[in-house]
Amino acid sequence: MTDLETFRQETRAWLEENCPQSMRSPFKSDKDACWGGRNFQFQSDDQRLWLERMAEKGWTAPDWPTEYGGGGLSRDEHKVLLEEMSRIQARPPLNSFGIWMIGPAILKFGSEALKQQHLPPIVRGEIRWCQGYSEPGAGSDLAGLQTKAEDKGDHFIVNGQKIWTSYADKADWMFALVRTNPDVKKQEGISLVLFDMETPGVSTRPIKLISGESPFCETFLDNVRVEKDQVVGDVDKGWTIAKYLLTHERSMIGNMGSTAAGQKTLAELAVDGVGLEDGKLADPMLRTEVASWVIDSIGYELTAERARDEAKSGQGVGNVSAMLKYAGTELNKRRYELLVAAYGSEGLLWEGDDRPAGALPQQWLRTKGNSIEGGTTEVQLNIIAKNILGLG
Amino acid sequence: MQKLVLTEEQQMLKDAARGLFSEQAPVSQLRKLRDEKDALGYVPEFWNQAVELGLAGTLIPESHGGSEFGHVGMGQVMEEGGRTLAASPLFASGVLGACALMLAGNDSQKDILKGIADGSHLVALAIDEAGRHQPFRVATKAEVQGEGFVLNGRKTFVVDGHIANTLIVSARTSGGERDESGITLFLVDPKAEGVSVERTTFPDGRNYAKVTLENVAVSADAVLGNKDQAASPLQKLLDIGSAHLAAELLGLSSEAFDRAVAYMKERKQFGVYISSFQALQHRAAHMWSELEQLKSMVLKAFMALDANDDQASMLASAAKAKASQVAELVTNEGVQLHGGMGMTDEFDIGLFMKRARPVQLMLGDFRYHADRVASFKGF
Questions:
Q1: Which residues constitute the domain of residue A226?
Q2: Are residues A334 and A276 in the same domain?
Q3: If you measure CA to CA, which chain A residue comes closest to B297?
């Protein structure tokens, strides 16, 4: 037996023993996700147990080094773990901007002290992070951000306002882009800093969205003290890290074009909504539109796969993430438009526990943000046109 | 799982094919064939060079004179041929003809493969009977007569029909006009009595024919595969053909796109290059994104065909559907982005549009293949 097969057997046995039964089904709603953090209310003992057991193995961050609490898995082992989890429909033990975003940035750009301080609590799900990027005046033109960090010797005093901060009202720490030098080219005076949301001067206000939900906040920073050792990388060099993180974020949001394991496909849902006649979706025009979507989604999935394979083989064009973000989010918006069409007026029922399509109206409205957040569709097209096609 | 990248050998074949097509069969060659109303519709010297490079036998087993390089390999050749709109019997004979014989032929019929690989024997597939592709709607009849059959019917849109040495004809040996069972494939000599092949002209200047069969007598050993049971090998053949046409559409669309982008960088209006206009940049970026996704689908379809994957039919249809859509988008935009110049015969960009449409229709367009994808996916 190869090492990888041994690993698979061991992983399968471990999961069998340690994954609680109630954690072996797809999320029924967003509320089933575990986000961790100081103030997180676990939905059940099983949810807490599942997080603790996975964190103990480092498998909340399977590919991070073990010295910072990660699982230390190779790429292939990581893949095996995901396959084995999906085999029993195990839920992800932890949703975390720490693992998805700031953790990888600290690993790549941070000092040893920052790694020691921040990575293990991220792995254990003890600290929940939020991202302070956009500002009221800096959306697509992110590098134009104005939040000011004044040098006070051993610390900075930060003043300004952030917006579209996901779950800022629930987060424990923020990673934020701030202007440390106003006198140079806008990209060259930005730093990435970390601070506790309980620091005096930090306040948040949820923003109610068209879906009626408030996943985003405004964050106000009023004379907030940030220690100098909480700068990731060098002072004034934060833009490079910001771009790295944006690439990361793009591929995450772009992934929304994919149908997660265990989730029903658009075609299956359309059949639920409309029914079959002679083996074909009962509404022929809708059938054509769904087929067209399915074809495009195959193209998207395969391109994501090819991009990964090319990266591994050292081939491929950079900036592919811009294209995947563009294609994936537009695809996801179309998916929800088609779902609304498939369920008809029943699919738009705004409230109630017995709605045939559940929270579809809220989800449909949420997808409209996919092509705005993390760089708009228009910004992605600009990136492709300028960086790949050389148009200018 | 197999990585979605070309192997070194496949990349070398692609590079070699690109070299050959760009040097020996540039777009100007097609233009000349068209303008001179060339009787063959291809340049034999070029065909000989392609054969010498082994291209005609890419799919054929070594035991029959080919290189057995697989669909991924042949797909690279088709894509590169699409870039220069190269006119040759490569698809009709080297893809459809070769695969028909490999899928359904008996040992003596497979002897033809050697002639296909060395370029001396050309084969054409005659299945369509109406404007839109409906391969299992067959009115052409084959009635038993003595030891053999008598064929009557009409076929249309037969690629390279007028230069073929052998026609592969679908005909009904039992059942009703729309039944999938009861179809049989026949090898027919175009010179046989009762066969008339009439060349037809299309916007792309390439070779198509109408074939009329009037009391054409063939012997029993003209049957390719099993009587009444052509549907299954024919479907497999059409999957293969569709994937290779998707590759040709990918190639011609990529070239049309490259030319449009190059034109944007040299054309000035309002005192600036039109490439500086965001309205045009975003359309170009969208097309690039579509082309990249098509590229992934085409490659995956070929890998699935080579691996005999049970998703191969679905992936081939998905690739042909997407290729048809992308080719329509990119060739239309290609002309539009060239402005008035795009409407002139002098500029090549229009040739890409005129090639794209027949290839889109060939073996089924977007609508035909989207319908198949829906059926494969259970809706």
A1: 129-236
A2: yes
A3: A299
CA pair distance B46, B31, nearest whole angstrom: 15
Q: Verify whether the Cβ–Cβ distance B293 to A294 is below 8 Å.
A: no
Number of domains in chain A: 3
In a domain, A268, yes or no: yes
Question: Quick one: DSSP state of residue B229?
Answer: B
Contact of A7 with chain B, judged by CB distance below 8 Å, is answered with: no
Q: Is A389 on the interface with B (CB under 8 A)?
A: yes
**CATH node for B124-228:** 2.40.110.10
- CA B190, CA A380: separation in Å to the nearest integer? 55
A268 is catalytic: no
Residue owning tokens 């059926």: B375
Using only C-alpha atoms, what is the Rg of chain A?
22
Q: Coil, strand or helix: which one is A276?
A: strand
Is A67 within a domain? yes
Within chain B, which residue ranges are assigned CATH 1.10.540.10?
A: 8-121
**Shared-domain flag, residues A11 and A43:** yes
Q: Is the domain B232-376 a CATH 1.20.140.10 member?
A: yes
Question: Which residue among B275, B375, B379 sits closest to A391, beta carbon to beta carbon?
Answer: B275
Q: Specify the pairing of strand B208-218 against strand B148-159.
A: antiparallel
In a domain, A166, yes or no: yes
CATH of residue A44's domain is 1.10.540
Interface residue of B8, B257, B261, B296 to substitute, partner A, most A CBs within 10 Å = B296
DSSP string across A118-182: HHHHHHTT-S-EEEE--BTTBSSSGGG---EEEE-SSEEEEEEEEEEEETGGG-SEEEEEEES-T
Is the ipTM here above 0.85? Answer: yes
Higher pLDDT among residues A207 and A26, named by residue: A207
Q: Which of A290, A294, A325 to mutate to test the interface with B (most CBs of B within 10 A)?
A: A294
CA distance B276 to chain A (A): 4
In this complex, the residue of B281, B295, B370 whose CB is nearest that of residue A295 is B370
What is the CATH T-level fold of the domain B8-121, as seen in this structure?
Answer: Butyryl-Coa Dehydrogenase, subunit A; domain 1 (1.10.540)
B271-274: Cβ within 8 A, 24+ apart: B274/B337
Name every chain B residue with its beta carbon within 8 A of the beta carbon of A326.
285, 289
Confidence (pLDDT) at B35:
97
The pLDDT tens digits of the residues spanning B157-213 come to 999 999 999 999 999 999 998 999 999 999 999 999 999 999 999 999 999 999 999
**A226 found inside a domain:** yes
Residue of A nearest to B291 (CA): A299
**Contact (CB, 8 A) for B207 and B162:** yes
Same domain, A277 and A369: yes
pTM: 0.90
